[in-house]
Predict the structure.
Amino acid sequence: MSTQLLQIKNLVKHYPSVKAVNGIDITLNKGICFGLLGPNGAGKTTTIEILEGINQATSGEILYKGQPPGNQFRSEAGIMFQSTALQDYITVRETLQMFGKLYPQQADLDELIKRCNLTEYLEQDNRQLSGGQRQRLLLAIALVNDPDIIFLDEPTTGLDPQARRNFWDLINDIKAEGKTIVLTTHYMDEAYMLCDEIAIMDHGKIIAQGTPKHLLEKHFNDVILQLPNIDIDNVDLSSFTTHKKENYIEITTRDVNQAIAVLIENNVSLSQLQIRQRTLDDLFLELTGKELRS
Amino acid sequence: MSSYTMSFKRFLALLSTRNKEFFRDRSSLSWNILMPVLIVAGFSFAFTGDIGEQFKVAVLNESMATKASQQFLTTKHVEFYNIETTEDDVTQAQDRAIKKIQRHQVDLFLDAKKQTYWINTESPKGYLVEKILLAQEKNAFTKQSVSGKQIRYLDWVIPGILSMNMMFSALFGVGFVIVRYRKNGMLKRLKATPITAFEYLSAQIASRIMLIMVVTAFVFYGTNIFVDFVMNGSHLSLFLVFALGALSMISLGLIIAARITSEETAGGLLNMFSWPMMFFSGVWFSLEGAAPIMLSIAEVFPLTHVTASARAIMIDGASLVDISYHLLVLTGQSIVFLLFGAWYFKWE
């Protein structure tokens, strides 16, 4: 039995003034969490909306379980958009019940409510939910049909750090059930934490694809030392690659010991020294020359 | 059966949620009920007591009036008005005048050529003006008696107010809501589920018809307690007229809201349709004798047919057969508007 759930072949979406998606190929295996990353305007939301059946592709082919997505796909897909309004004057319970009835099959509502931590808010009007509660409800709606594939479009945007962490735990739970997840996000730490595989998009094209670890290993074999500007003003660092930021300087090196030795030699205080591994943010900057959030 | 044919389960889920949303929105609900009640109360207050002390006499064949008739036509403090006639519609004009006598809208109707007059035996003002007529020449005129309960302006205008309230609820209640849902992404979210546009629109229509009928019934019976307006026809017929009228106007609202994404544009367009209907559909004044162009325009408006039908049922006790022309027009309009609206509809 094939492990491929979704295949996207040479997907193109052209608007009159812009080529939003410019020929991308993706294959999604069952049970993985796939992250689609990119700056605003990269084409990731257009791509995910085409996959969800909300938007029409200009050309290309999409196969779900080996077939063009049709009624079966709409029944088996769970979708959480970037922003969705919920009906006013309707409670959380009623919202879940209504969405549940729109599908031929339903998840166990009690179980879903418990899993998404909605028990306390069940009788609350949708209008009274906080950002985190609302995102959990939208996730519950996406899961209400016990989907095989779940699309999450920037699900944690606007949430506070604690709410984001809670949301990640939920997604990890869903992953553990073997469901397939397609996630778009601006947060690289989120992608790193949740995704088994990522694709970085820019200008409608995929510019890198693979597991986060593999991509970082492929593109980087160095680490970064961060020091406050003030501590390093008169030190000769010409033998290193450096990037000056507003309040600190970054020294890129393959040999941490040698870099530290040079700093000590020059009487640089190491009390505020930070050493960090390369991240997906660095990878994106490396590949596109742009900040990820630009 | 495929889950993508019409699903009653999905339809009911949407219908029930929409109904809850409406009934829990207290401000909107109160306004829907209060507005017509306030209008009726305003009219009731404005037209309390006698509208005027002057006698009102309708005259036919004034240009061919006999000497006795001419004498009467010079009476002071009596308002005479000629019934405009051509050779072809004398009978119709006469029927209309007699109907007004029955409703106490005119005190006496005189055929000045034939020296025949009609009065309502139940009208005190008719009795008095008859005395004035006969004071000149007692045996010169032939008397025709009719009877009928007085129809106040309030009785006449209430069917129009009920229809107008229904129109606003139908147009804005569906049109505006769909545009708002489209704008805030609710429709997009629903599009991602297995529901079809037909199921969604059917649920919206059914919900609004139910709400309109409940609110209209509430206003109808509630107002009647205080105003005691005339209701000579069948309540069931009136119910059917309002239900069909609601369907027709909701369908019109669907066309307006089929693709618009801005509430401001929707509001402008809905006003563009509703205001002319409110003024030129015979809600506030009779279209009788209006310019032919205005009559043609009014004929296109669903509100004209709902108001005319409701008025015929409530005042004249008309049956569904009597108003079949209006029902046919409303049915035709509903079908055309619905098909076009469903075809033109876009989720986003």
Summary: The CA atoms of residues 5 and 30 of chain A lie 5 Å apart. Residues 4-217 of chain A form a domain with the Rossmann fold fold (CATH 3.40.50.300). Chain A has a mean pLDDT of 88. Chain A touches chain B at residues 52-54, 71, 74-75, 77, 79, 81, 83-90, 94-95, 97-99, 101-104, 141 (CB under 8 Å).
